[in-house]
């Protein structure tokens, strides 16, 4: 039922857009941006990046109208409804951060000759011939985390991986990158647990962290938590077990508490992406395609390793605190 409804909605969306696409001039471009949700700073940063790109393109004489609309609950059915709200509007292209990688699988038949070009941001979508995929290389992010762990424990010791949740393609890619790099580059490091998931909630993440420390706390030398919620929960558990600063912790994405812990030395590394850059490059890449450019299939928006030593550097500060307020004005 969901598959049939998805196909119908997306089909009506493309048909409506096809008539409007030809009517637009290349100096007047409308782009819809559909994020996974609206309740996280990440989506605000993507929105700000998209608007910043629009502002800069306007200086070059290209008027880009950004139509932004997310679904508050991050449920797939609601995201389908959000996409459907754009049916019949005068669009030249769309950026989509799908709720999950199977969301549009087999339903969106987009290729280089389509009337409505589509670019995927943030998450992989299994659809035919996307224009580009503009996002973090999560596998590389996991590999960078592995190298940081290897450096911290000097290539020898016991390591725990706290995963995010099953079915999340981004976190699964970074977890795969972490495991593969440890096994390939650090043969004297033992992965003593790789099957525990933090999940979405703080309570679930803390319970998983507590379980891992109860079982491995006397043996573990370092932990990699592949999500922000897992990083914060593991930090709390390490503190409660009096192991903060003794067991090395490398996390993924930044929060207020994890950044404070970087400064205090309780977290020894954070791999952070750049959602502002993702929104910016998503728009500029799509506009370039609409104007006839030959775009790369994958546009990597990069990751940065944050440590106590570099947290005040310009590169890290630009990744952590892009000028959101200026771009959103």
Walk me through what this model shows.
- The chain has 329 residues and is an alpha/beta fold.
- The chain has eleven helices and twelve strands.
- It folds into two domains: 2-136 and 275-302, Rossmann fold (3-Layer(aba) Sandwich); 138-273, Rossmann fold (3-Layer(aba) Sandwich), CATH 3.40.50.
- Helix content is 45%, strand content 19%.
What are the defining features of this structure?
elongated; Rossmann fold; single chain; 329 residues; disordered C terminus; six-stranded mixed sheet; 11 helices; six-stranded parallel sheet; 2 domains; alpha/beta
Mean pLDDT: 81
If you compute it from the alpha carbons, what radius of gyration comes out, rounded to the nearest whole angstrom? 21 Å
Alpha-beta content class: alpha/beta
Could you tell me the number of beta strands? 12
What is the level 1 CATH name of the largest domain?
Answer: Alpha Beta
Please tell me the CATH architecture of the largest domain by its name. Answer: 3-Layer(aba) Sandwich
Total number of distinct structural domains: 2
Question: Remind me, CATH topology of the largest domain?
Answer: Rossmann fold
Task: Tell me the series of helices and strands, N- to C-terminal.
Answer: HEHEHEEEHEHEHEHEHEHEEHH
CA(first)-CA(last) distance: 42 Å
What can be said about the biggest beta sheet? 6 strands, parallel
What is the percentage of strand-forming residues? 15-25%
Helix content: 40-55%
Count helical runs. Answer: 11
Shape: elongated
Q: Assign the CATH superfamily of the largest domain.
A: Response regulator
Strand order of the largest sheet: 2-1-3-4-5-11
Unreliable segments of 5+ consecutive residues: 1-25, 101-114, 324-329
């Amino acid at each position: 039922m969901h598959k049939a409804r998805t196909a119908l909605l997306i089909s009506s969306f493309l048909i409506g857009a096809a008539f409007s696409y030809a009517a637009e001039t290349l100096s007047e471009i409308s782009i819809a941006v559909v994020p996974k949700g609206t309740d996280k700073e990440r989506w605000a940063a993507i929105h700000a990046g998209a608007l910043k790109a629009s502002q800069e393109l306007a200086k070059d004489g290209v008027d880009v109208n950004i139509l932004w609309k997310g679904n508050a609950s991050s449920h797939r059915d609601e995201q389908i409804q959000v996409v459907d709200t754009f049916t019949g509007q005068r669009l030249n292209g769309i950026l989509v951060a799908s709720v999950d990688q199977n969301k549009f699988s087999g339903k969106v038949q987009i290729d280089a000759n389509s009337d409505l070009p589509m670019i995927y941001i943030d998450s992989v979508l299994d659809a035919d011939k996307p224009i580009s995929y503009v996002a973090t290389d999560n596998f590389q992010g996991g590999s960078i985390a592995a190298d940081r762990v290897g450096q911290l424990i000097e290539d020898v010791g016991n390591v725990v991986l706290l995963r995010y949740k099953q079915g999340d393609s981004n976190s699964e890619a970074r977890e795969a990158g972490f495991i593969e790099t440890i096994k390939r580059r650090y043969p004297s490091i033992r992965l003593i647990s790789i099957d525990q998931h933090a999940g979405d909630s703080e309570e679930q993440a803390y319970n998983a962290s507590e379980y891992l420390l109860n079982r491995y706390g006397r043996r573990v030398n370092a932990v990699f938590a592949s999500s922000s919620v897992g990083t914060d929960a593991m930090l709390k558990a390490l503190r409660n077990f009096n192991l903060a600063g003794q067991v090395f912790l490398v996390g993924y994405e930044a929060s207020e508490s994890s950044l404070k812990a970087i400064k205090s030395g309780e977290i020894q590394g954070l791999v952070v992406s750049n959602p502002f850059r993702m929104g910016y490059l998503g728009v500029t890449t799509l506009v370039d395609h609409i104007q006839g450019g030959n775009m790369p299939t994958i546009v990597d928006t990069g990751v940065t390793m944050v440590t106590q030593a570099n947290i005040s550097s310009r590169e890290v500060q630009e990744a952590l605190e892009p000028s959101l307020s200026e771009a959103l004005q």
